[in-house]
């Protein structure tokens, strides 16, 4: 029976070259496999980072809509932005993360400013309200003194009795409501609550302080 001839074994030098190439091929295959695994891991990490950033941007959008509604501002518009020439996905992801961090910082700053009243935000509520009522009482006192100075009874050496109700009741009431309205409009935080109008303090300043100043003025001018 005639069979195929056996394959001749390579000589020692050929076998050594064969095994050397086989080892190199095996090492190359391992390196390619490791590189592919690294790329796959980087792709998974990148996709996870993109998903996380996408959820973060969606939460930011919802927060901005809520903040705009709370501050009674127009709803923000989110248009599409043309992608920039950034060929490296890692660099693009880094820039997107930086932009998201800046957006969070801006939203936090807006929230912090909205939690403070527009008028004298660095003052405590009591100090701010007392100052507002004091300014209103001072203006009312000057108006009362001006009315007294322009009254014809003053030239006759008499107290203008027709000005007494205004000086003791009318003008203090106007000063109180002017201060109260000012505090209500620009002296209250727009979000977060915690505002106060200090009505008792305003009442003391306007309805007690103004008449005292008026009596002191009358006593000084007649004494």
Automatic annotation (TrEMBL):
The chain crosses the membrane at residues 130-151, 163-181, 201-220. Keywords: Membrane, Transmembrane, Transmembrane helix. This is Uncharacterized protein. It comes from Salinispora tropica (strain ATCC BAA-916 / DSM 44818 / JCM 13857 / NBRC 105044 / CNB-440).
């Amino acid at each position: 029976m005639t069979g195929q001839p056996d394959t001749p074994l390579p000589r020692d030098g050929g076998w050594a070259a064969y095994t050397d190439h086989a080892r190199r091929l095996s090492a190359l295959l391992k390196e390619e496999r490791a590189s592919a695994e690294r790329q796959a891991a980087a792709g998974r990490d990148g996709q996870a980072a993109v998903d996380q950033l996408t959820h973060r941007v969606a939460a930011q959008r919802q927060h901005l809509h809520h903040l705009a509604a709370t501050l009674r501002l127009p709803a923000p518009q989110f248009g599409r932005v043309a992608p920039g020439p950034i060929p490296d996905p890692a660099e693009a992801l880094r820039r997107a993360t930086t932009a998201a961090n800046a957006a969070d910082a801006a939203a936090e700053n807006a929230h912090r400013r909205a939690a403070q009243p527009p008028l004298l935000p660095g003052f405590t509520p009591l100090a701010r309200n007392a100052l507002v009522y004091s300014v209103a009482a001072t203006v009312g006192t000057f108006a009362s003194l001006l009315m007294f100075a322009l009254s014809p009874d003053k030239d006759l050496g008499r107290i203008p009795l027709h000005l007494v109700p205004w000086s003791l009741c009318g003008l203090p009431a106007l000063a109180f409501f002017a201060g109260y309205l000012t505090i209500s409009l620009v002296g209250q935080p727009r979000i977060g609550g915690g505002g106060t109008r200090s009505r008792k303090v305003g009442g003391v300043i306007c309805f007690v302080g103004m008449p005292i100043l008026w009596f002191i003025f009358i006593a000084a001018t007649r004494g």
